[in-house]
Amino acid sequence: MNKVLGLLLAVFLLLPLSASEGAKVVVAPTAQLPQVILREHLIQQAVIGIEDYLQKGGELRRYTIEAINAPAGLRLPEGRVTYRATLPNGVRLSKGTQVNVDVLLDGSKYVTMRCMMRVRVFDQMVTASKQLIQGNVITAQDLRIDEREYKGENWKYFTDMSQVIGKVASRGISQGEIITSRNIQNPVIIHSGDLIDLSAVINGIRVTTQGRAMENGREGDYINVKNMTSGKVVRGKVIDKNNVEISR
Fold this sequence. Notes:
The protein is mainly β.
């Protein structure tokens, strides 16, 4: 039994660790394949490919790039070695970004080596300096700027406090939480029963009459309004606290 365990241990020690664990794996040249490309060189080419992709996309935020998994290295014949890196799925922030590194020998593709990389992007974001209560109007004292990671979520964050001041919390917001398009909204500026100017553009001419709001509305909302002249209820877009516009 001890001999079996000893044999298994010996085999285990001879096996290289996963490249994702950063093990130092030595790929030695052979007579037939005298050139060697190290793992670190493949990672470098993957990084160059990602940086080029980000720069072409106009990325100005701070970012970091690290290897998740990469080949241990490569042996190849004599010849001039060049590289071409492509990102078949683009950059997937904070997740695995695949980079295909084509190794070219004398201008022709010799092999494609796949590297999995992690790209993290950071920006100066508006966050809550204290607990914010749902429905309360947000002031400058409620906010601060912190560097935070953006992981590609499907929401908009803000980099300027003026973009947030005057909005209201659409739900409770914890201290330190990023202010996003999902947790704030415009305040109610027209209330049900308010008299407002109701306008429409007809044949290039703007016609305005008095209307009465039938429901609350925020800037950009569509609400029901009673035309005080005709008595009809129409639906229009809230422009400001005094104006609702009917689209035709």
